[in-house]
Amino acid sequence: MIFRRFYILIFPAVLLINGCALFRPSVDIETVVVPPVEREFRAVWIATVANIDWPSRPGLPVAQQKAELRAMLDRVEALNMNAVIFQIRPAADALYESDIEPWSEYLTGQQGKAPEPFYDPLAFAVEEAHRRGLELHAWFNPFRAKHPTARSELDSTHVYYTNPDIVREYGRHLWFDPGMQEAQDHSIEVILDVVRRYNIDGVHIDDYFYPYKERDSLDKLIDFPDSLSYANYIEYVFGEPLSRDDWRRNNVDRFVQRLYHEIKNEKSYVKFGISPFGIWRPGYPEQIEGFDAYAEIYADAKLWLNRGWIDYFSPQLYWPVDQKAQSYPVLLQWWQQENIFNRHLWPGNFTSRVADRGEVVWPAEEIIRQIHLTRLQRGSEGNIHFSMRSLIRNSDNLIQRLDDESYREPALIPSSPWLDNTPPSQPEVQTEILGNDVLLTLATRDNDDIWLWAIRSKFGREWRTEIVPGWRNSFRIKSDDSRHPPEVIAVSAVNRLGNESVTVVLKPDKANEIRILN
User: Fold this and answer.
1) What whole-number distance in Å separates Cα of residue 31 and Cα of residue 6?
2) Distances (CA, A) of 117 to 120, 127, 197, 240, 400
3) Which residues, listed in sequence order, are joined to residue 476 by a DSSP beta bridge?
4) Cβ neighbour number for residue 462 with a 10 Å cutoff
5) Residue 297 CB neighbours (<10 A)
């Protein structure tokens, strides 16, 4: 992490109006160093496919669904994390109210069935996340049309029935054919519909583009059945046609590029992120071995990063630090070297390995170490944990270690200057002394739409940082263990893209410290 030192002038004189202290400048000036607020993306994936995280089972009563989601968001907030990536489209279905695709069976137990009593889980999740000052990114799978864990019959409104020409049967899956323009149009319209109607902070897609290859009953690899769409491409292409593999990669490339620009055309502040497989190709860098995502699922993730078609890039670095053939820090450094446009690099961590009951179980130390190494890698400021269940269980004291070590202090999400770099106006702060506490009343001069307030309080030599949701117009600073009010208060406003205002710094005088208003 890179820390900056801010030297800010403090004006200690105070004017009392109707019991409130309005801090005004005087001729006495002293200089105080106000520490900046940490900047780091701290997020977790909440997976709904196969009910991995939420809801805990299909058809759970609505009250329990809400209670589970609230508990998850409470845990994220308590750990000083600042974002959730919420899966709302596992397989051409919806965990939100949609006129395009049917309700997901993972929600109600039957595809096409709305929750009863009715509520919209995405609208609920956005409201609850924002109330806690958390960003919510909507997570889509763009091309999967049916997952093998699905048990209910497909609803009559599912794309398999409404537009069967763009869907292919592949092994145990149904899959959109990315080589068909109509299939791409359908998925992009689904995503843009959510961008238009919901107050989300980001759009997120994962590593499923063309499917991971499956084998038939004779253990023979099954090729993706896109002969017709490739033949159509050959018939109408101008010039030398691409090979089938290059054509497949180009289909995904065009989708990613178009989706990025379409999102910005709708709402420029909505961030777009991708979490591809953590290895681009074996041999990149030289010591790396393993799955070839470029050749097997036709994902040229390096190209997307090189071209800047994303706002944040989250390769799934799901291997231990000391596993040489897939070393976490080696891969992270390589991806950063490919980050030509300096987009956010927030790697994904396989945190569920700590909570896993399978053959491979990691100690909590592995995740703590990975977070530390991410911070040491210049240009990488954050992590995304897979998945929420690992933050609900407390295997190997993971929660305590995150709370005491990695995420002890709160952090703001890094800003995205390529989207916007205009800060909000300077806060206007009124104060009221309540015993040894200080009550702040918060606003901005231009009535900006504030996402967060960053409040720093100095007690002796120690600074305390608290990040407060922007909808709150007041905040009470509690006294420290010595039961003294803060010596210095610093307040800044933060907008939705992480731009921070000029900091207002306040210093109560001794006369005001002993004034008690009950």
Assistant:
1) 10
2) 10, 18, 21, 57, 37
3) 439
4) 8
5) 21
User: Phi/psi of residue 282, each to 5°?
Assistant: -55, 140
pLDDT one-digit tens code per residue, 400-427:
999 999 999 999 999 999 999 999 999 9
SS3 of residue 64 by DSSP? helix
Average pLDDT over residues 427-437: 90
427-434 and 462-469 beta bridge pairing: unpaired
Query: Is residue 383 a contact partner of residue 413, using CB atoms and an 8 Å limit?
Result: no
Domain parsing of the chain, residue ranges: 6-36+423-513, 41-406
Kind of pairing, strands 437-444 and 427-434? antiparallel
d(CA 227, CA 88): 31
Contacting residues for 162 by C-beta, under 8 A, at least 6 apart: none
Compute φ and ψ for 202, nearest 5 degrees.
-160, 160
Q: CA-to-CA distance for 52 and 69, rounded, in angstroms? A: 13
Q: Which of 273, 441, 285, 417 is nearest to 348 (CA)?
A: 273
Gap between the Cα atoms of 384 and 206, Å rounded: 12
How far apart CA 366 and CA 349 sit, in angstroms, is: 10
Q: What is the CATH number of domain 41-406?
A: 3.20.20.80
Q: Comparing C-alpha atoms, which of 364, 493, 404 is closest to residue 78?
A: 404
Question: Is residue 513 within 8 Å of 483, Cβ to Cβ?
Answer: no
Cβ of 83: how many Cβ atoms within 10 Å? Answer: 22
Length of the chain: 518
Residue 345, CB half-sphere, CA atoms under 13 Å: how many? 28
pLDDT tens-place string over residues 34-67: 999 999 999 999 999 999 999 999 999 999 999 9
Phi, psi (degrees; rounded to nearest 5) at 160:
-60, -30
Tokens of 159: 């794309």
The CATH T-level fold of domain 6-36+423-513 is Immunoglobulin-like (2.60.40)
How far apart CA 146 and CA 155 sit, in angstroms, is: 11
| Distance separating alpha carbons of residues 194 and 176, to the nearest angstrom | 19
